[in-house]
What does this fold into?
Amino acid sequence: MSVIDDVKNRLDIVDVVSGYTTLQKAGRNYKALCPFHQEKTPSFVVFPETQTWRCFGACGEGGDAFNFVMKAEGWDFSETLRELAKRVGVEITPFSSEQTQRQEESERLQAILDETARLFHDQLLNLPAAQVARDYVVNRGLSAETVAAFMLGYAPDDYRSTLQHLQMHGYSQDEIVEAGVAIRNDKGNVYDRFRHRLVIPIRDSRGRTVGFGARAFAKDAVPKYLNSPQGLLFDKSQLLFGLDMARRAIRETETVVIVEGYMDVMQAHQAGFANVVAQMGTALTETQLKQLDRYANRLILALDPDMAGVNATMRGLNVAQQTLGADQQASFDPRGMIRYTGMLNMDIRVVTLPDGQDPDDLIRENPAAWEALVGRAIPIAEYVIQQSTASLNRHSSYHERERVARDLLPILTATESDLQRNGNIQSLARRVWIDEKTLMQWTQRRRAIQTRAVPTVHEQRQLAGRSSYNHPGRGSKSGKPGQTTAPQESLCLSLLLEQPDRLAAANRKLRELQTQDAHVNPSLGPLGTQDFSRGDYQAIFDVLERSLYQDELDPLDYVFDYLPHALAERVDQLLALPHEVVRRALPPQDSATAYLRTLPGVTQFTSFEIESLILRQSRIERELQELYFLQQDSQFEENELTDYHYQERLRDYSRARRLITLTLRDIRGYARNV
It folds into this structure.
């Protein structure tokens, strides 16, 4: 349990609010004059069962204890958490000395790498010995603007020049070695790692230099291509070259293109194809793909025909590797890619480059051809089937066709999406001339054998994720009725954090509904903090929404920069949510919602719009329930119960709820016809 949940579970909202205003018992709940605006008639209500509050007057706001104290005191979430933790006796552990030391070390190494990048770039532009590097850059067709944007540099043919420069800036030899800029040999001597090389700074998604890639100019240099070593800041499995410069274009196009080399990326960006990045390791990792899933719905792999290794992959059902150069290897794991299409709900596609050409060559020679090639990218499953069945025809023996089919089925059914799995089997059936029913039977037999085995790590993670959500309506571990982990809110906020632009699409859908009924404007306005019942979620949404009105930082970077530590940890938890598992754990509001959640082929394009409508529907139901509680308990005088203001709100909520329900059912009807 996080410190936020621990504090919340120990709080009683009645005690919290009574410290700011006088509460009067009224049935099961409490009422008061709203402390946030002037009023003569009590419209502020505290609901002990749900541990929430709401103003039914001019404010129209509500939330939990955290949200109330933040509003009452004008504190940020961090201050509120600290004060409420003191009140209930929860200790907020500060950074340990080890954590503080690690953070300081990281900042120190970051400063070394930044200074080194500036030094190398200056040397490329001005050092006479760097002429060979300048000629190379010109021959590769890179402009001065591209050189500056990527901060290309030159490391001179000297064993100590970089080391001495950094030492003059106050850095120790140990720090310079730790940063990967220098090497210490067996005799204890320290010297420059990069010598007589074109140096390319490698930056993380926030644009911070974390390492270097370097190409040697000496003919006998080994290796020809040299990267920084793995370390505290440089981890190839978590980095994508060019992502810091590609994020905006990826988000705008909702598409990312993956290539192999640094030059491919730079040439693509120079030609205006700014949604291109390169993988750093031998294969795309789950961490890299999850980074891209925050920005893109479609991922396109640009594969060289000589490196795909498709045939070897099909035979061994393992990652196939084939050497690209002296120190580089590329991997293509179709089984993994197909699994990610379902797990991350991404449309993963493949393009095969013309023989003898890489993206760098093709873009320089014919940018239009590159654009057309990317536009013709085919789904990963279709690519795998095409490559593996190319040698088959109707005259192939049944034994040959069966062998290919049995080899392919484990790959094509690796996705977690039943719709994609069935579609892949249908496509395979047409290519191997074996009926779909037979292929289904083979798959079911194989699954039956697997289910008797020990669950995979991924399955165990799914089960663990499912068990972490309380069933709505049940009490939390604290025993307070009505307190749940708000899985619907968690799901929506997680989806928004991954791709903030989804908020605009959801608000467009709400505006469309507004035009259908002029009386529901208040209930169908844009998504806001009040759509979330939890104070921490409201605080996160508020910062996320503000991030969309600035251009200096990527929205997620802005969120991490402006949130206190406790909420940044909550954001990490939300980004790690297994979406499909959460969806399966949610109770459907009605049959339309239940049906929609079984249609990944439709929700691939409208998932957040649907989930945001359900989120708004939940808010309306929550506020309707609060109004009904007031009526049932006769908390107000008779003239207040019939007051036009409250009756109007009831009508507003009822109309909005009906519109959302009809919309979800319309989508269900559309889905049936797709």
About this structure: The longest helix spans residues 600-632. The mean pLDDT is 79.
